Amino acid sequence: MLKNLLNLIYPRLCVGCNTLLLTNETTICSKCLHHLPYTYHWKNHKNDTTKKFEGLLPIEFGISFLYFQKEGIVQEAIHKLKYKGKQEVGTILGDLMSAEIKEFIINQKVDAIIPVPLHPKRLKERGYNQVESFGKAISKNLNITYNDSLLIRNVYTKTQTQKNKDSRQYNKENIFECKFQESDYNKHYLLIDDIITTGATLEKCGKAILKIPNSKVSILTIGYTQS
User: Fold this and answer.
1) Which of 37-41, 68-72, 113-117, 156-160 has the lowest mean pLDDT?
2) What residues contact 2, with CB distance under 8 A and at least 6 apart?
3) Whole-prediction pTM
């Protein structure tokens, strides 16, 4: 009775379509799960994500899990993950992706998962890194170390609405920095983020990671923005 009462006061809604979740549904309704726009990048090395970095960043592989479409399921879900504190979105998407890419990642011999970092000021404002739950779900399912201290962001940038004002500052080469030691040498790092659009942020992060001697870097994101 108490559970039913709580559901009336605080209804459980799907993060993709905002409909009421059924008793056996969690976070995302069955209909939205069925209609998730998978990219299947892990089945094609010459995919959109890999091509994004050709000539810019030497990556071992690039994968985006879902296509990010305006006003679509993925946009709704990631908006709630990023701005509404729905970190369970990252967990369920990380669980789903782990099941799809497990064999592929095992063959690639990834040593550690590295999230694109937030500046400490942004982290304090938001309270969490939006890719943390996604990365930790993959880390747990695939038994790969999650390391959120190796890569740091030195420059604080404002929201997307202030992007033009921040562009000169963002173009600085040292916006991201790797704090590494000898034990970090000779490893394959999987750099993760929520959405890939231009790829500029991931490119800068990847270049910072590749300053580690004999390191390799690959890229994994939740969504890929279709033009």
Assistant:
1) 156-160
2) none
3) 0.89
